[in-house]
Write the structure tokens for this entry.
Amino acid sequence: SSTSEATATGTEATAEPGEALVAIPLTMLVSGSYFDVEQFVNKAEDLTRAMLITGISIVPASEEDSVTGELEATITAQVYMTQAQADAALAAS
């Protein structure tokens, strides 16, 4: 089973023409089998919020897990939202 230390909340919204977008850097740590990690990335690509994955690093979760196939992936990304959405997210947290 895969686990993730990153969570996201919010509602879908669109930017008005000419409205500036804010890029929010994000780092996620995901562990599980190769297929768990692949499924996580596939689901991240289907989010309604604009997100760009900028890097993925995959290593065995531990020396023992190199035999069992458990992996640990560090995924870096940027989530894009309007300044108003970013302000609302900060106020909610």
The beta strands are 3-4, 21-32, 51-60, 71-82.
